[in-house]
């Protein structure tokens, strides 16, 4: 039965100022630089220069009413500083990512709010510039050995290769695309012929339709001993399933070879590249740290790496010029007020971002002091620990550490790497899960590849070292490390 009634609900709603602050808080320093430059271009009330103090902001707003007494000015300054703090989520307000997205969706569709809606919290990946695409590299190699028609077929093939380097459409479909799209008479056999040439370029195996074809292409063009190359190709062509399942006894029996001979052939196959696409681009990798932590005596000096971030202030000249225009239409005056308010809030958001990040970084250094001193013994730490230490809410910590790095004496580290759950040891101490995963990795690296350790055996070794851990937990962490099961780790040397 359908019932109609009324009920009250309490909903959190983020203000545009809080949304702006949270957006700025979660982006790394290299994106902050870009964001400020964009804002300088869009808002005439902002200009580069030494940052404005609250007194300068109030003085600019007063304009011609400079006869107001000092007491009133001071009251206005205090009010401005107090309202500036409103952009910060209160410590007892646990804003979730869903609240954040909902607030963005509820905003008006002004240009200001469109800028705020551009990205989601976890979807702001910064990519360094691509120096040369893989397609360009391959086409340069292909140009001297194909005609004009084959070159165009090659372009179509390369446009259908995924990031791992595999072809995502059949040769029949590619031929059909060229016939329908460009009225080009192309047969599937012609596409297949060009594809074979592409697969033997550098990197070899590119454009393969499956792993078997990818490995075979690399073997055919690779510089390997002829007898071992021939046997490797036979194994892949005639016993691919046994090879993938590591049924080595079956392979030795089928090809009538010794264990030593099989081991030498498998070493060749295992050195081949299963993902020749490698991201499809040659990328210049570099990281810009957001924080710099330096040891000075017994203390740590923490600074934000903002040397390339423009300093901004309110544009006094532009504001005074507009204030002298007495006959401006009401709607223009309203727009001017909105732009001016937006400029003020943007400056305040930058300031509060800086304060919050430093507060959280100080808390991380205090909680992980031993690691910052020695580069070792990372202790268990979760977002709640830092939130309590810094006096902010957990969601603020999550956004603050998003995609940010810190430079210290021992290198550059991702902030998220400092967080880890804990595992209790038999003597009552606590160890971070990150450290436990590292121990599992070390145990596997030291195992006999001919007789790799099972998860039960790894758990037993860890228990003998004082870690209270079950086999299924070892299996979970091993999977997270990307390490296969014992059967698939087995190798013949």
From TrEMBL:
UniProt cross-references to PROSITE patterns, sorted A to Z: SIGMA54_2 (PS00718), SIGMA54_3 (PS50044)
GO cellular component, as recorded: DNA-directed RNA polymerase complex
Keywords: DNA-binding, DNA-directed RNA polymerase, Nucleotidyltransferase, Sigma factor, Transcription, Transcription regulation, Transferase
Gene Ontology molecular function: DNA binding; DNA-binding transcription activator activity; nucleotidyltransferase activity; sigma factor activity
Domain RNA polymerase sigma factor 54 core-binding stretches: 131-318
GO terms (BP aspect): DNA-templated transcription initiation
Domain called RNA polymerase sigma factor 54 DNA-binding: residue spans: 334-491
NCBIfam families: rpoN_sigma
Family in the record: Belongs to the sigma-54 factor family.
Protein's name in the database: RNA polymerase, sigma 54 subunit, RpoN/SigL
Organism (species): Candidatus Thermokryptus mobilis
């Amino acid at each position: 039965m359908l019932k109609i009634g009324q009920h009250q609900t309490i909903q959190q709603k983020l203000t545009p100022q809080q949304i702006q602050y949270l957006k700025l808080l979660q982006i790394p320093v290299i994106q902050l630089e870009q964001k400020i430059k964009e804002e300088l271009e869009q808002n005439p009330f902002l200009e580069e220069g030494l940052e404005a103090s609250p007194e300068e902001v109030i003085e600019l707003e007063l304009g011609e009413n400079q006869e107001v007494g000092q007491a009133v000015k001071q009251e206005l300054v205090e009010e401005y500083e107090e309202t500036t703090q409103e952009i910060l989520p209160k410590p007892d307000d646990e804003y979730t990512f869903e609240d954040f997205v909902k607030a963005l969706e509820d905003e008006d569709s002004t240009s200001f709010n469109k800028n705020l809606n551009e990205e989601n919290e976890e979807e702001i990946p910064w990519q360094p510039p691509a120096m040369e695409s893989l397609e360009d590299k391959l086409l340069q190699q292909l140009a001297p050995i194909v005609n004009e028609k084959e070159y165009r077929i090659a372009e179509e093939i390369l446009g259908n290769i995924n990031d791992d380097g595999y072809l995502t459409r059949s040769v029949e479909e590619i031929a059909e695309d060229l016939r329908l799209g460009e009225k080009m008479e192309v047969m599937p056999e012609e596409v297949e012929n060009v594809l074979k040439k592409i697969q033997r370029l550098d990197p070899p195996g590119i454009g393969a339709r499956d792993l078997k074809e990818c490995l075979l292409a690399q073997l055919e063009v690779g510089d390997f001993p002829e007898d071992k190359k021939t046997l490797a190709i036979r194994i892949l062509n005639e016993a691919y399933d046994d090879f993938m399942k590591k049924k080595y006894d079956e392979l030795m029996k089928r090809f009538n070879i010794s264990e030593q001979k099989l081991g030498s052939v498998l070493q060749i196959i295992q050195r081949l590249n299963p993902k020749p696409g490698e991201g499809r681009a040659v990328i210049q990798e570099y990281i810009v740290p957001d924080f710099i932590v330096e040891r000075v005596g017994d203390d740590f000096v923490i600074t934000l790496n903002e040397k390339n971030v423009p300093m901004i202030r309110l544009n006094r000249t532009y504001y005074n010029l507009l204030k002298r225009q007495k006959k401006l239409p009401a709607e223009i005056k309203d727009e001017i007020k909105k732009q001016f308010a937006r400029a003020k809030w943007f400056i305040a958001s930058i300031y509060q971002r800086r304060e919050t990040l430093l507060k959280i970084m100080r808390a991380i250094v205090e909680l992980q002091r031993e690691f910052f001193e020695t580069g070792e013994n990372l202790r268990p730490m979760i977002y709640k620990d830092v939130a309590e230490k810094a006096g902010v809410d957990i969601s603020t910590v999550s956004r603050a550490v998003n995609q940010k790095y810190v430079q210290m004496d021992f290198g550059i580290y991702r902030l998220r790497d400092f967080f880890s759950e804990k595992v209790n040891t038999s003597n009552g101490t606590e160890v971070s899960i990150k450290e436990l995963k590292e121990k599992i990795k070390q145990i596997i690296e030291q195992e006999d590849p001919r007789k790799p350790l099972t998860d039960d055996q790894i758990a037993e070794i860890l228990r003998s070292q004082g870690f209270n851990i079950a086999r299924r937990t070892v299996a979970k962490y091993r999977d997270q490390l990307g390490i296969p099961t014992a059967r698939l780790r087995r190798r013949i040397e």
